[in-house]
Amino acid sequence: MIDLFIIFTKTGLxxxxxxxxxxxxxxxxxxxxxxxxxxxxxRSNDKAYVQDPYAVKWTLANELGLVFAAVYHKILAxxxxxxxxxxVHSILVSDTYIRHSNTES
Length: 105
Description:
The chain is of the alpha+beta class. The chain is 32% helix and 32% strand.
């Protein structure tokens, strides 16, 4: 089960976040670890990040400067995480390009 889904800019502005269990906070804040250890170091080829007890899968939309990330317990890795990230990425990127191209016409 996904514990947290978040969309943020590469500059750190959080655009969307959904925590499935709002009564519990994530230990060691794996999103901060992802930003510090992966994104700021330019390791964008890594698409998974592990910070015990969590794992973070993420994808980057370079054209928009957005990061889509899903946090889950590493021992309970859901099979749908990659598909969720790809779907959200493609929907937001294609919708943004359609709106942008319509305003330029």
